[in-house]
């Protein structure tokens, strides 16, 4: 194979030397700056059942009966009995509802006169392996004398794979524990508690966990290995929106997540389920240590999605932040350092990074951030504090904070923004890109999406003196509970696969140098700019709104589309969970769901004027007017009026977003005018120009590249992304290279189509492969496949 590859490379160089025009030039002996040692990491938020039902290996769902007041995710069967979830209540002297402990407030009360079964199939069936050991436990008490026997069984239908007796039920809560070893494997097993007796028995904390786990953090083995293979330099946790909560009471509170597993207070997760905190603050820190990654803890800043805490009431938040740092880093003689030691880790975790807030903005956040950050810096001056940058604004004090920017967009946006940080002012705040991913125009996560991200990442490497850290998001998704469109690692109860993006992250992380080298690209074809044409749309985000008197015309007044909403909207394309209605000449959207849109028009419309009346009725935000929408796509070229909790106006184009402070009054009709051309878009409210943005100030190359040197090994590392639709023969010139090995190792990610995707049934359809490439003196010539990522490692001779 290697001989054939070498022969092909000689032929390629001979045939294309004259025709080849694109050149990548690297100055090997002119290093620019150090590579950030924490450039590429991971972000773990409990979304899509990422932790419970995913990384946390508990096989049972609702093990402590805290999910609901009813018997949620359990099935009880008995001809002569009943089972009820009871809340702690000691007021009934004859039959008090005594909880397992003061923090575990609900349990199951079973009252029977004969046979009964209680079963749980976990997260869409339990995966058990033949001959492996599973730790079973159950807490029991009887308020009166229960007479009878019970068993715990792992079953598939009528087939019993493992079982154990349950005995010693007393008047006080007591655990029964056993090891269950299945005689067969199954991906659709259940745990069944089976009994025959008389009386009442109370049950809580029924658990079944495999002994075969990964790391000291004890996570699901295959998913832990998948994380480890990403070689992350940091772990941001636990969110994300979960840090904020829908309301303040639902925010993440780390003190409720440590200690004995049955004393952790479950929390309703705004992504649609109850979190057990089986992986709590301690386990997150341990997971980072297992991965050899720096922990990065994100804390609440007194801001939730719907509520804020004023600055004069922020003392508890400050104390919680200081205590969290002491828990991670304090000596065992300190209060929280001693708690860490009791939980099994006497040595400090060496937490260095703490982020205050998630996607927060506005005056309340700015003030709260300043108070929290100053308190942290006063007591722990060594801590690196990170603030939120949202809609282009972030706290200005303290000035030493790193800023967190988030980007979700199309492949083209990421390609066109590969040089986003090239001209960023040096010496200012460092940038942490806490969340980024291609989330639209990429199918279910295809190669094209990965190409867009890879192009962007070359820019992060070239500018790692500005961008200190970056993390793809989200990380995990249980395919049975998907709440975010595109996710890096997807799984069911026994399999997983990574998107092509997973392998881009892996390729970049495995090939990091220590210094950045100058790199230039000449003769590259230019990016095909996505068509600046398309229809129009109306939208809302977590709010209701109304629209009327809609008209689309040419600049000279010719009507392209008009609707007075006196009849239906059958010609419109609806996206999202909206509730659209037409009545009395008004189009209303009555759902509070996020990202609700309705589109109409022609893909070929290029230059036009949109006029309408619009008003916000209720909810967080205002309304959105979309332009240049291509049918069937989820592109976000739009004017967002009263967005981000009714605080800004934002014009989003293919290149970037432009924001100004702006709010609207609920219930008031506004006259909206949007002038769209191939060059610019202008937005008017009530006859006044509010905002404008350029659409085509773009001159980007299809080839994106970065170069580094590993000073320890002497290796030169070159990353090349061909974002174009055609293979491209390119010369890579290594100025000042000296003597190197005759062959360079190339790792290549490509596929037959840019639309190719991985899946549970075809997990390796798009994965990297290795090649050997001949080096001819100080250069090599290589054909880069269309839509490909290539990493060269060039070693000294």
The CATH topology label of the largest domain is TIM Barrel
Count of distinct strands: 50
Tell me the radius of gyration. 29 Å
Number of DSSP helical runs: 12
What is the CATH class of the largest domain?
Alpha Beta
> What proportion of the residues form beta strands (DSSP E)?
35-45%
Q: What is the total number of structural domains?
A: 3
Tell me what the CATH architecture of the largest domain is. Answer: Alpha-Beta Barrel
Instruction: Please state the structural category.
Output: alpha+beta
Mean pLDDT: 93
The level of helicity is 10-25%
Question: How is this structure best described in words?
Answer:
- The chain has twelve helices and 50 strands.
- It has 797 residues and is α+β, with helices and mostly antiparallel strands.
- The chain folds into three domains: 276 residues, TIM Barrel; 152 residues, Galactose-binding domain-like (Jelly Rolls, Sandwich), CATH 2.60.120.260; 160 residues, no CATH class.
- The strands form nine sheets. Strands 4, 5, 6, 7, 8, 9, 10, 11 and 12 form a nine-stranded antiparallel β-sheet that branches. An eight-stranded parallel barrel has the order 3-15-18-19-20-21-22-23, surrounded by four helices. Strands 30, 31, 33, 34, 36, 41, 42 and 43 form an eight-stranded antiparallel β-sheet that branches.
- Strand 39 and strand 40 form a beta hairpin.
- Helix 6 packs across helix 7, helix 6 packs across helix 8 and helix 10 runs parallel beside helix 11.
- The chain is globular.
- The N terminus is likely disordered.
Question: Which helices and strands, and how do they pair?
Answer:
Elements: H1 2-16, E1 22-27, E2 33-34, E3 40-43, H2 51-55, E4 75-77, E5 81-87, E6 106-120, E7 126-128, E8 134-141, E9 147-156, E10 159-166, E11 174-180, E12 186-210, E13 213-214, E14 219-220, H3 221-228, E15 234-237, H4 241-244, E16 267-269, E17 273-275, H5 281-291, E18 294-299, H6 315-329, H7 335-342, E19 353-356, H8 363-379, E20 384-388, E21 402-409, H9 411-416, E22 431-438, H10 447-462, E23 467-472, E24 476-478, E25 489-491, E26 496-498, H11 500-510, E27 515-516, E28 519-522, E29 535-540, E30 543-553, E31 559-563, E32 573-575, E33 580-583, E34 586-589, E35 596-600, E36 608-619, E37 623-629, E38 638-642, H12 643-646, E39 648-652, E40 657-661, E41 670-676, E42 680-685, E43 688-694, E44 703-709, E45 716-722, E46 728-735, E47 743-749, E48 769-774, E49 779-784, E50 788-794
Parallel strand pairs: 1-46, 3-15, 3-23, 15-18, 18-19, 19-20, 20-21, 21-22, 22-23, 24-25
Antiparallel strand pairs: 1-28, 2-27, 4-6, 5-6, 6-12, 7-12, 8-11, 8-12, 9-10, 9-12, 13-14, 16-17, 25-26, 27-44, 29-35, 29-37, 30-31, 30-34, 30-36, 32-35, 33-34, 36-41, 37-38, 38-39, 39-40, 41-42, 42-43, 44-45, 45-50, 46-49, 47-48, 47-50
Helix pairs in contact: 6-7, 6-8, 10-11
């Amino acid at each position: 194979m290697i001989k054939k590859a070498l022969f092909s490379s000689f032929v390629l160089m001979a045939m294309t030397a004259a025709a080849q025009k694109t050149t990548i030039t690297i100055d090997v002996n002119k290093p620019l700056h150090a590579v950030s040692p924490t450039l590429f990491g991971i972000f773990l938020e409990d979304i899509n059942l990422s932790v419970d039902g995913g990384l946390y290996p508990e096989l049972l769902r609702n093990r402590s009966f805290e999910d609901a007041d009813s018997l949620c995710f359990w099935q009880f069967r008995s001809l002569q009995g009943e089972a009820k979830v009871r809340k702690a209540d000691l007021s009934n002297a004859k039959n008090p509802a005594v909880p397992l402990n003061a923090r575990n407030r609900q349990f199951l009360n079973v009252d029977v006169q004969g046979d009964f079964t209680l079963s749980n199939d976990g997260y869409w069936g339990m995966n058990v392996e033949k001959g492996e050991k599973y730790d079973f436990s159950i807490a029991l008490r009887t308020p009166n004398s229960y007479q009878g026997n019970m068993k715990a069984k792992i079953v598939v239908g009528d087939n019993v794979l493992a079982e154990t007796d349950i005995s010693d039920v007393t008047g006080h809560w007591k655990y029964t524990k056993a090891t269950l070893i299945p005689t067969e494997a199954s991906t659709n097993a259940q745990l069944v508690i089976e009994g025959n007796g008389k009386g009442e028995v109370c049950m809580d904390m029924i658990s079944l966990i495999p002994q075969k786990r990964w790391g000291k953090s004890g996570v699901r083995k295959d998913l832990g290995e998948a994380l480890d293979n990403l070689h992350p330099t940091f772990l941001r946790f636990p969110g994300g929106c979960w840090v904020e909560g829908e309301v303040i009471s639902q925010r993440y509170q780390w003190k409720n997540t440590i200690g004995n597993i049955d004393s952790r207070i479950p929390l309703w997760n705004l992504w649609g389920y109850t979190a057990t905190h089986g992986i709590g603050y301690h386990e997150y820190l341990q997971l980072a240590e297992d991965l050899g990654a720096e922990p990065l803890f994100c804390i609440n800043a007194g801001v939730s999605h719907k509520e804020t805490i004023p600055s004069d009431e922020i003392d508890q938040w400050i104390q919680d932040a200081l205590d969290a740092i002491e828990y991670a880093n304090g000596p065992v003689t300190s209060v929280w350092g001693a708690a860490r030691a009791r939980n099994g880790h006497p040595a400090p975790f060496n937490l260095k990074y703490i982020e205050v807030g998630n996607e927060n903005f506005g005056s309340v956040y700015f003030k709260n951030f300043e108070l929290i950050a100053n308190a942290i810096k006063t007591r722990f001056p060594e801590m690196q504090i990170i603030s939120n940058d949202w809609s282009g604004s972030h706290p200005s004090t303290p000035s030493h904070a790193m800023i967190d920017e988030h980007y979700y967009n199309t492949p083209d946006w990421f390609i066109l923004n590969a040089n986003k940080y090239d001209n960023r002012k040096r010496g200012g705040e460092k940038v942490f890109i806490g969340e980024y991913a291609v989330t639209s125009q990429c199918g279910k996560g295809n190669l094209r999406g990965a190409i867009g991200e890879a192009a962007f990442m070359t820019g992060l490497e070239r500018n790692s003196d500005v961008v200190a850290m970056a993390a793809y998001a989200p990380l995990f998704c249980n395919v049975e509970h998907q709440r975010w469109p595109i996710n890096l690692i997807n799984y069911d109860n026994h399999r997983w696969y990574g998107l092509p993006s997973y392998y881009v992250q892996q390729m970049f992380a495995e090939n990091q140098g220590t210094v950045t080298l100058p790199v230039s690209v000449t003769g590259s074809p230019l990016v095909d700019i996505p068509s600046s044409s398309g229809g129009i749309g109306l939208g809302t985000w977590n709010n209701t709104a109304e629209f009327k008197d809609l008209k689309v015309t040419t600049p000279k007044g010719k009507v392209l589309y008009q609707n007075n909403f006196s009849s239906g909207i059958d010609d419109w394309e609806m996206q999202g969970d909206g509730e659209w209605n037409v009545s009395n000449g008004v189009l209303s959207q009555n759902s509070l769901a996020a990202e609700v849109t309705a589109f109409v028009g022609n893909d070929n419309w290029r230059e036009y004027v949109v006029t309408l009346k619009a008003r916000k009725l209720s909810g967080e935000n205002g309304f959105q007017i979309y332009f240049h929408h291509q049918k069937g796509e989820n592109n976000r070229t739009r004017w967002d009026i009263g967005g981000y909790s009714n605080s800004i106006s934002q014009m989003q184009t293919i290149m970037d977003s432009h924001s100004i402070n702006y709010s609207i009054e609920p219930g008031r009709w506004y006259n909206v005018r949007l002038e769209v051309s191939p060059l610019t878009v202008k937005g008017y409210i009530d006859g006044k120009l509010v905002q404008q943005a350029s659409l085509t100030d773009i001159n980007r190359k299809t080839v994106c590249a970065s170069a580094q040197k590993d000073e320890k090994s002497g290796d030169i590392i070159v990353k090349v992304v061909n974002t174009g639709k055609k293979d491209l023969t390119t010369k890579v010139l290594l100025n000042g290279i000296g003597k190197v090995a005759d062959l360079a190792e190339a790792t290549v990610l490509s596929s037959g189509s840019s639309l190719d995707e991985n899946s549970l049934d075809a997990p390796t359809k798009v994965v990297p492969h290795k090649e050997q490439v001949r080096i001819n003196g100080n250069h090599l010539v290589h054909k880069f496949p269309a839509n490909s990522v290539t990493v060269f490692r060039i070693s000294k001779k």
